[in-house]
Amino acid sequence: MHISDGVLPVSVSIGSYAVSVGLTVWSARRTRSEEMPKLAVMTAAFFVASLIHIPFGPTSVHLIIPGLTGAILGPSAFLSIGLGLLLQSLLFQFGGLTALGANALMMGVPALACGWFFQKFKGGTPSRQALVGGLVGAGGTVLAALILAVMLVTGGEDFFGVAKIALAAHVPVIIIEGAVSCLTVGFLARVKPVLLLHGLERAQGHPHG
Amino acid sequence: MDEWTAIRLPLWQLFAMVGLPVLALAIIVAVLKRVARAGSLEKGEPDWSVPHIEGDAGDSPLHRWDVRCKIVTILIYSFMITAIRQMPTAFVAIGLSCLVLVVARVSLAKVLMRLMAIVGFITMFLLVMPFTVPLKSGDTVIVFGGLQWLHFSMRGFNLAATICAKAVAITLLMEPLLATAPLPVTLEGLSRLGVPEMVGQMVLLSYRYLNVFRHEARRMSTGMQVRGFRKRTGLATVQAMANFLGMLFVRSFERTEQVFDAMRARGYKGHFPQQAELRLRPADLVGAGLWLTIGVALLLYDRIGW
């Protein structure tokens, strides 16, 4: 769920822009400069993944995958998500202008938290990694929903009702995200464990040429 | 406390007031979506892996406007719109945005797509806020039948409508901002405004590979369908989709290495050749000043009124 323009108070929009820029700079510092083009290519992959819809009863849910992004990219995840949002706004007629910072926070902060949690608790066996991956997938979505609700509530008590509905609307997404993240991490742990190693920056540590 | 005006209406009017507009909106959105999709599709089957980044060539004041001035002006103006509090001003802002659309002559199908993208989020406000806003003295409330807990607050409706109007006003400006110059020029403008050059490069690279991976994802999903896979609600589908995602990541990851090596082999040293040349003319600044003055006037009208 994207926050659209004109919803948040001006102070919150500008504040979240400032925090997002700060986090992006931090995230870029944690990424080696020659890894940037690779990060751009991985961002494209996550973008395509987020276009996939999964049926859920009468409707379908599209993935946000903050958990997977965090688990695979580590600290670079925030940069990747900011880039994805910019891309969406520039070229896919989707996403706002004044709410860009708020949206980046809503999806980027959970990704960072998920990345940290995943690296901390992933353990060694594929099944444990899958379990932690699922936890991270569901938890990341919960966190995103909470950030959305908090931002809406900054508008005053008139916004409490909307914030509650927005939280409730995330419940199916949380279930699907958890299941998909668990199974995807399980797949990666068996097929290409290097992707889950340390985040992108050190996963490709061997020098080129 | 407890000093609000209550208008009593029979229960069926609730369905007339809420159900019918929602139904009408749903039908309009469905039709518009089809129109927007038909309008934005190119003839024949395009090569999906080659991105299309040249903006529509056009000649309008917005196309000629210096891209730096355009970005800064529209960004500041959008924040001004966000600060609006009264409904009439918000609708004036929509009117002004429509005027800009007419002047810029951008693709209406693209504008519609942007509107469709926000319609779900803002409809939630329109539907939820009138029923959940806390009552304050002086409010007008419509009570339906004997249901005391179900009251439609006019103040909440007003608030929600203002928010929606602001969202629409800003969304209408996005196409004039982004589609009146080719993407490389817009990115060049951003980098001249202090955004690191790497950001622009990464956008271009991501966009290129996004189309490649979309192509790849389509091929993989065709393969799955040929082997009898159908999307259903259930664990089997989730398992298949998870493997699909995992495979997509593995292939993309392997590709990043090849892409990077190929770039280095062609002499990539951290930047692409410059493509755009930007010149700032006095007319650009006058345009920016004029537009921002209108924004300030709008805000003054909103806060003080005359």
Characteristics of this structure?
heterodimer; A: 209 residues; mainly alpha; Arp2/3 complex 21 kDa subunit ARPC3; two-stranded antiparallel sheet; 9 helices; 4% strand; globular; disordered C terminus; B: 306 residues; 2 domains; 3-stranded mixed beta sheet; 10 helices
Descriptive notes:
The complex is a heterodimer of chains A (209) and B (306). By secondary structure, chain A is mainly alpha-helical. Chain A has a single domain, classed as Orthogonal Bundle (Arp2/3 complex 21 kDa subunit ARPC3), CATH 1.10.1760.20. Chain A has helices at residues 10-29, 36-50, 66-73, 77-91, 100-121, 126-153, 160-169, 171-191, 200-203; strands at 53-56, 59-62. In chain A, a hairpin with a 2-residue loop joins strand 1 (53-56) and strand 2 (59-62). In chain A, helix 3 (66-73) packs across helix 4 (77-91), helix 3 (66-73) crosses helix 6 and helix 5 (100-121) packs antiparallel against helix 6. The longest helix of chain A has 28 residues, at 126-153. Chain A is globular, with a radius of gyration of 17 Å. The relative contact order of chain A is 0.17. Chain B has 306 residues and is mainly α. Chain B has two domains: 12-182 and 277-303, no CATH class; 197-265, no CATH class. In chain B, 69% of the residues lie in helices and 4% in strands. Chain B has helices spanning 12-40, 61-64, 67-82, 87-104, 108-132, 154-178, 183-192, 197-226, 235-265, 282-303; strands at residues 5-9, 140-144, 151-153. In chain B, helix 3 packs antiparallel against helix 6 (154-178). Chain B starts with a strand and ends with a helix. At the A-B interface, helix 1, helix 2, strand 1, helix 4 and helix 7 of A face helix 3, helix 5, helix 6, helix 8 and helix 9 of B.
